[in-house]
Amino acid sequence: MENKSPIIEIKGLYKSFGKDKDVLKGVNIHVKKGENLVILGKSGSGKSITIKCLVRLVEADRGEIKVFGTDLSKLDNDELNVIRLRIGFLFQNGALYDSMTVRENLGFPLQRHRAEFTESQVNLAIEETLESVGLSEAIDKMPSELSGGMRKRVGLARTLILKPEILLYDEPTTGLDTITSREISELIISIQKKYKTTSIIITHDMACAKFTSNRIVILRDGLVYTEGTYETLEKSEDEWVRSFFI
């Protein structure tokens, strides 16, 4: 892992929904280039809202968000979209288009954002990306023909096809059995190594957190409560922190 200035910097991030629903109350998080950061926290602690604010899918009330050294709050839509193309977001459900084959699902972002690609370049990119997630044989299947784990892999392939530098994983193993969850965790690590990605991983799955994290941040009541490696936090003298690792 390269020891450079953070590729993601979140400082003093606040977000409320209505008068009495303060979700984020001054969150500070940084992620270094090439690092996998896992964010833990009980339900409602603001984990998913944090990464949605990061790409401005949700607008923060106040705070600073810098990605690649650029303050996102100062960008107009066109400038923001240029940055977003360098960030991949894997949603919980994989968010595939059910009426499209796997090939068409992967081709869709290329048609929108890589109009200069020839048909052979598009096909090559689709085949290479599917191979990288171990699903070459599913290229002409419909999403309805795939298992939950396969759908998650295709969703990840569609995210990877634009070669993002940052990946945001929102509960990547939710709803999957133990073996498939392990496979997805292994895939997250192989992608980190192959594509040199920087990632934030939101998860409740402690096996996934242990396997994929270089560092862990734990949110509590809208703030960063503590951070450290899995091994350090597992041995914490704080009972509440240790409760995650039981």
Structure description:
- The chain is an alpha/beta fold.
- It folds into 2 domains: about 170 residues, 3-Layer(aba) Sandwich (Rossmann fold), CATH 3.40.50; about 70 residues, no CATH class.
- Helix content is about 35%, strand content about 25%.
- The chain contains 9 helices and 10 strands.
- The chain has a 6-stranded mixed beta sheet, with helices on both faces.
- A hairpin with a 2-residue loop joins β4 and β5.
- α3 packs parallel to α5, α4 crosses α5 and α6 runs parallel beside α7.
- The protein is globular and about 55 Å long.
- It starts with 7 loop residues before the first strand and ends with a helix.
- The mean pLDDT is about 90.
Summarize this entry quickly.
The chain has 246 residues and is of the alpha/beta class. The protein is built from 9 helices and 10 strands.
SSE class: alpha/beta
Number of DSSP strands? 10
Spell the H/E element sequence. Answer: EEEHEEHEHHHEHEHEEHH
- Residue fraction in strands: 15-25%
Radius of gyration based on Cα positions? 18 Å
Main β-sheet: number of strands, strand sense, barrel status?
6 strands, mixed
| H/I helix tally | 9
The CATH C-level class name of the largest domain = Alpha Beta
Mean pLDDT over the residues: 92
Terminal Cα span: 29 Å
In which range does the helix fraction lie?
25-40%
Q: Uncertain regions: pLDDT < 50 for 5+ in a row? A: none
> Which CATH architecture of the largest domain would you pick?
3-Layer(aba) Sandwich
Strand order of the biggest β-sheet? 6-7-8-3-9-10
CATH topology of the largest domain: Rossmann fold
Q: Kindly give the count of domains.
A: 2
The CATH superfamily of the largest domain turns out to be: P-loop containing nucleotide triphosphate hydrolases
Q: Estimate the global geometry from the Cα principal axes.
A: globular
